[in-house]
Design goal:
By secondary structure, the chain is an all-alpha fold. It has 8 helices and no strands.
Length: 194
């Protein structure tokens, strides 16, 4: 995966879990590879096109995340899983032609968001230092449900948590800066939408 060749990495991770089905690292890597492939596909669509993702691919990613979490509770994987479900629940319309037993996809998007919320709560228990992210994502989920005051409260609570607990380096990496600005401007964006 570090070399950028996900398909080769997937083959190696699948071989590894075939030989050792209880290896957390391989299940986590499989889940992250599959989720990254789906995210890439979601990003590749035009804004006006109908978004369709193969349900089997989503179920494969969900299965790999569940296997990894069954073997070992890991806060980072829980966050990745929760963010993946949030992304799926908010942006995907599934094709109905796949004749596959569906696990998570038969649920309405609202239930997928509920599952995402529960995973964020579990992640907060595993990684209390990520409480700001959990609060921010709770706000985004509440916003997707059409609520107005609740997301704003979550966003401001996340900002207050960051003010109290976060230490900022002198030079902020661009990835962190982008996420921080998203948290900072979310209450204002939500108010503008009203």
């Amino acid at each position: 995966m570090k070399n950028g060749d996900r398909s080769l990495a997937m083959k190696n991770y699948l071989l590894d879990v075939t030989l050792n089905p209880n290896r957390f690292d391989s299940w986590a890597a499989i889940a992250l590879c599959k989720a990254a492939d789906i995210e890439d596909k979601l990003r590749s669509f035009d804004a006006g096109s109908v978004e369709k993702i193969d349900q089997r691919k989503v179920n494969g990613a969900v299965f790999a995340f569940k296997q990894a979490n069954k073997i070992e509770k890991n806060g980072k994987i829980l966050i990745e899983f929760a963010q993946f479900l949030f992304s799926i629940g908010t942006r995907v319309k599934f094709s109905l032609d796949a004749q596959v037993p569906i696990d998570i996809i038969t649920l309405p998007n609202f239930n997928i968001l509920e599952m995402s919320l529960k995973l964020f709560e579990q992640a907060k228990e595993e990684m209390p230092e990520e409480e700001w992210l959990v609060l921010y994502m709770k706000g985004k989920i509440a916003e997707k449900r059409g609520k107005i005051q609740e997301p704003i409260n979550y966003y401001f609570t996340a900002l207050a948590w960051l003010d109290q607990h976060a230490s900022y380096p002198k030079k902020i990496q661009s990835e962190f800066k982008t996420l921080f600005f998203q948290v900072y401007f979310s209450p204002f964006r939500t108010c503008n939408q009203v």
